[in-house]
Design a protein that fits this description.
The protein is mainly beta. Helix content is 12%, strand content 30%. It contains two helices and 13 strands. The chain has helices at 3-27, 37-43; strands at 88-93, 112-113, 116-119, 125-132, 136-144, 160-166, 179-185, 190-192, 201-208, 211-219, 230-239, 248-251, 267-271. It is elongated and about 190 Å long. The N and C termini lie far apart (184 Å). The structure holds calcium ion (3 copies). One calcium ion binds next to loops.
Length: 275
């Protein structure tokens, strides 16, 4: 072989040696093995998305336990209706002379005024005083009336007074035997409603400047009078102002106008002990 060929051969061999050396080095793992794309994908750390912070969950408020419903209040028992307090005439103990004159003892009796109008709103009215003794109830009435008339044939439409008594104070809604209605006009003419009779009443009248005086006594035979005894009592004035009919009707207490047929509307009278 010539020199040129030897040199070429040496060069080739050298190259081969180098190639082999490099390949061997590679085979010996001195370099990173080739990485397949798949592996690369696998190895590339996946950028995990930052975990979204869990939204802060507002703690659900525990529903407050429903308040125990308060036990329904026991309905208060219906109150007993307050007893009606009726006005009471206070009859003093004594015995007047029935003459339409004011006995001195009348000065000790309280005066009541009729001002419960049932017919009309003004006109004849009365100031009355009451007295009692062991047999009777007495009344002294000063009636103001500027025109005296008994033109009507109906006694209750004449200028007159009426007294109503309920001797046992039972307040019945219809007249019983002890319930009575008496009427006296300014001329001392008596007339009678339920159970009243002339035998039970003594009366006198007198015309005065501003009206008339009526003084009378009624024997209480159904329930004998005694100290602190209470009876039903009502007083009425009838007025004819010249019309020939009743233009005014006023009572001490009752406003129903039904005293003539219903003792339960009367007020009361108490028989005071002797002073
Ligand atoms: Ca008298
Ligand atoms: Ca009665
Ligand atoms: Ca009159």
């Amino acid at each position: 072989m010539n020199k040129i060929n030897k040199s070429v051969l040496i060069g080739v061999l050298a190259f081969a040696v180098v190639v082999l050396a490099v390949g061997g080095w590679q085979l010996l793992g001195n370099r990173e093995p080739a990485v397949t794309p798949d592996e690369q994908l696998a190895e590339t750390p996946v950028q995990q998305p930052a975990e979204e912070p869990e939204p802060e969950v507002e703690p659900v408020e525990e529903p407050e336990p429903e308040e125990e419903p308060e036990p329904a209040e026991e309905p208060e028992p219906a109150e007993e209706p307050a007893p009606v307090v009726l006005p009471r005439a206070e009859a003093i103990k004594g015995t007047p002379v029935i003459d339409a004159e004011m006995d001195p003892i009348w000065e000790n009796a309280k005066e009541l005024i009729t001002n419960s109008w049932v017919v009309g709103t003004e006109g004849s009215s009365a100031r009355i005083r009451t007295m009692w003794d062991d047999t009777s109830l007495y009344v002294y009435a000063h009636v103001t009336d500027n025109l005296l008339s008994k033109a009507s044939a109906n006694r209750w439409e004449q200028d007159s007074i009426e007294v109503f008594i309920d001797q046992n104070n039972a307040k019945a809604t219809a007249y019983e035997a002890d319930d009575m209605q008496f009427r006296i006009n300014f001329d001392n003419e008596q007339s009678f409603g339920s159970n009243a009779t002339a035998e039970l009443i003594t009366s006198a009248t007198k015309i005065v400047e501003d009206g008339y005086i009526v003084e009378f006594g009624i024997r209480l035979e159904q329930v004998p009078p005694k100290e602190n005894h209470v009876i039903g009592f009502e007083f009425q004035v009838n007025d004819d102002n010249g019309a020939g009919s009743r233009t005014g009707k006023v009572l001490w207490h009752d406003s129903s106008g039904n005293a003539w047929q219903n003792p339960s509307v009367f007020a009361e009278l108490i028989m005071l002990p002797p002073q």
